Batch of 2 targets.
Target 1
Amino acid sequence: MTLHTRRGGDRPPRKGGDKPSGLSIAVLVVTLVATTVAAQTKVTPPKNKYTPEQDVQIGREAAAEVRREYPLINDSTVDNYLDRLGNRLVAASPADLKKPQFEYSFTPVNLKDINAFALPGGPMFVNRGMIEAASQEPEVAGVMAHELAHVLLRHGTANATKAQGFQLGALAGAIAGAVIGGGWGEAISQGSQFGLGTWLMKYSREYEKQADLLGAQIMARGGYDPRALARMFETIKKQNGAGPPQWLSSHPDPGNRTQYINAEAAQLRIAPLPNDSGFQQVRNRLQSMPPARSMADLEREAGSGSGEGRSRPPASVGRVGEPVPPPSRQYRTVRGGDLFQVSVPANWTPISSNNVMKFVPQNGYGEANGQETMTHGVELGVARASSRDLRQATETLVEGFLRGNPEMRIAGGQQSMQMAGRNAIITMLEGRSAVGGTERVDLQTTFLADGNLFYYLTVVPEREYDIYSTAFARVARSIRLNDR
Ligand SMILES: [Zn+2]
């Protein structure tokens, strides 16, 4: 799955040797052009245990979720324009990578952040902010060609192949969660470093370079100079705002991006530029619309609402610092996707994001000191295991956790125990609670059949531990894992 460079490999046989000189020059020119085209870098799709049909199914489910959650533009001028542009790029894609099953779609999203993403099997979403940040059509085409290359090379399911063992439903949910989670998912994983979904849609530097090179080749065949892609990356990098742009966090710069894209461009024959007058029309159309909201606005609004029917977590459940009611004696059973099932006190609110589910009592979760904080409650989730050894894998997980929570420390050694009928480890941690005093955090970990870690984390102020210990233990006993 590495990049192979093939130079002058598929050179067609030279024709004619004793032709009149005029014709001989023409033949020579044709041969040179053919050689130049053959000099493009060959990009090979990485190992993938999923079928193209499964890509389509995962992408379709995740896209349905995105359409429910995101504000779409729904304007025929913009919709048709993006459609035409996308289809032109698909037409310019290598035949051997275009799976007949794939369902390509190109949907403009009414958000001002400079972002775009594509889901397995074809659905692509392009933010209004991306179109507005571009100065010319080839720049938009560049980002779309890069996204399309991820689809054609099936990088989403190639990532999942590395993770292994995830059922399709869980995968679609994780991918949708990763995309929709946006800054929110990051805020949570900053604290916990957990969240497999984010990882699934985060491409490695190797995949990025593949998407850049294949994207450049698609652009050239579609009539766009690939140097526009390098230019757009520079624009994205310079984008002002809090933290790095979302696009760059899932598409990390492999280094020397501009140089190798320009070098590839120099090897390619660029087809004539298509009529790009539609770009200005779309720009004018967007300008006539009310300003777009940002992802951060969207998350704030979701948080202040009832949270009903949304997969995005609410910003709070009540208010941190207000009295927290004790766990109800009534329990209800909740499913965590296809992966697990658990019973929790009936008065705890579920919050799910990526591959993490929290259950928190009223006033047990919200903002404190400018950070999202869980003062009371439990969290269940999946994390990548660094080792096949449970102790070692747990230690790595804990280290990540401690890095994100500088006031936390290990309060005792690891102890063996059982969770969901499997060998597990409990690690006791303690920190400072946002509501004052010492906070007690217990982490239980076990392996899933696929080698990932499943964990169960409990959080409560030390002085209230006695009120919660029975509930925490009962929740732990109720955990059922369905991964085998
Ligand atoms: Zn990428």
Target 2
Amino acid sequence: MRFSVLVTLFGVGAVLMAVAVVFMYGTDGADEPRTPADHGRRLFRLQGCATCHAIGGGISRGPDLAGLIPRLSARLTDAAYRDHLDSLQVARPDVYAFFAPRYEGIFSAQGDERIEAWFAQHLKNPRFDHFTGLMPDYDHLTEEQIERLTAFIMTLK
Ligand code: HEC
């Protein structure tokens, strides 16, 4: 008799534990980030990026980020970026001089690394090469968060 009570209690305990585990972790873990890009996608939401940036349609205060990477590649070729910087230098030589070391850093990287270097600067201070920009600074992000956000935006082809 006593043994069967114990078995029953144990059974009830096990069921409760299972319910608690499912409740805490979900059944399939589908929402859990796995790759750096998954983490970045989640950060994009948690850091409020998604409140200003749609990706492929919807209301967007800032640019819609669909097709971002081809767009950035075109904007960051030596010739295109130099042209853009020249016009900044003419408009605001003082601000240009202040940010000049950052432009050198971008020119010294090539290909995807140039895009990544640009994006890191853009997060730190979006006005560094767009003096009248409206996007807020994200200079509170850690290196790891920047890496994860970068992995995510690199998927926006
Ligand atoms: C308050 C609105 C706002 C928030 C929040 C915001 N952005 Fe922006 N973002 C903008 C605007 C506006 C621009 C256009 C350039 C500018 O005005 O600075 C922009 C430009 C960009 C661009 C360049 C897009 C292009 O096509 O040129 C990228 C990439 C970007 N933001 C990523 C992010 C990420 C990642 C976050 C979150 C960490 C974020 N933004 C948060 C408003 C915002």
